[in-house]
Amino acid sequence: MSDLCFESNSVTKTVAVGGAVARALRAGDVVALSGELGAGKTQLVRGIATGFDADPRAVSSPTFVLMQEYEAQPTVVHIDAYRIDSLDDLESMGWDEPTQNSSVNVIEWADRIASELPEDRVAIDIEHLGDEKRQLRITLHGKLHTREKQLRTALLDHADIGLPCPICKTPVLHGDEAFPFCSPRCKTIDLGRWLGGDYKITREVDWENDDLATMERDTDGDS
Ligand SMILES: [Zn+2]
Questions:
Q1: Beta strands of the chain (E only): which ranges?
Q2: Is 144 part of a structural domain of the chain?
Q3: Looking at the 3D structure of the chain, how many domains does it have?
Q4: Fewest CB atoms within 10 Å of the CB: 32, 46, 185, 222?
Q5: 97 or 212: whose pLDDT is higher?
Q6: Are residues 27 and 94 located together in one domain of the fold?
Q7: How far is the CA of 55 from the centre of ligand 1 (A)?
């Protein structure tokens, strides 16, 4: 299980996050969306659907129809599980196995039927932080953890979320443990470069009170 946690500060950004997520998805995948009313779930679905070339105007909350299909490559199925008690209800609506396997499947209010969803799924939780600011948590369950690098790269390249690790360029998110490094290993390599003199200090340092992290790097270096 891999957990990616970050913030979006605008609707535009949330849609862009959806587009980035789409790049790590393929037919048969299930995306389980959760978040309170007005958290921005529909914006995220709009981003995912347009990531597969669906018409963004076609995307709306399926509250009254429970299930919508957007013409795209592959088809994007958008389900509202708010009034559903079990997967059987979805099957009677037409969400059978062949449909699921040939589409990208996005389920809003997925927490209501979480125990019945496939183990291999992408869970996205959106939390309203105020105005257009949102906290997003993407969890790659089961085998989908293998998509983590692809997803991180897409978030950085297409939604400007995160930064490349200064050592190995792997995309890093603010919520990651070793931020701004991708791993304790890269953090150690960086410290080694400091101690080895690869980085030069360009001003006088008060060794008693200065924090290593605030020092400027020699921009002429080959780091
Ligand atoms: Zn790294």
A1: 2-8, 30-34, 67-70, 75-80, 103-108, 122-130, 133-140, 163-164, 171-172
A2: yes
A3: 2
A4: 222
A5: 97
A6: yes
A7: 38
Residues with CB under 5 A from ligand 1 (ion): 165, 167-168, 170, 182, 186
Percent with pLDDT over 90 in the chain: 61
Q: Output the pTM of the full model.
A: 0.83
Q: What is the DSSP letter of 110?
A: G
Verify that 142 and 60 share a domain, yes or no.
yes
* Same domain? 72 vs 155: yes
Establish if 112 belongs to a structural domain: yes
20 & 102 share domain: yes
Which CATH number belongs to the domain containing residue 72 in this structure? 3.40.50.300
Residues 6+ apart with CB under 8 A from 46: 15, 18, 56, 59
* Cα-to-centroid distance, 190 and ligand 1 (Å): 9
Is the distance from CB of 145 to CB of 1 less than 8 angstroms?
yes
pLDDT tens digits, 156-178: 999 999 999 999 999 999 888 99
Confidence of residue 40 (pLDDT cuts 50, 70, 90): confident
Instruction: Using the mean position of ligand 1's atoms as its centre, give its distance from the Cα of residue 169 in Å.
Output: 6
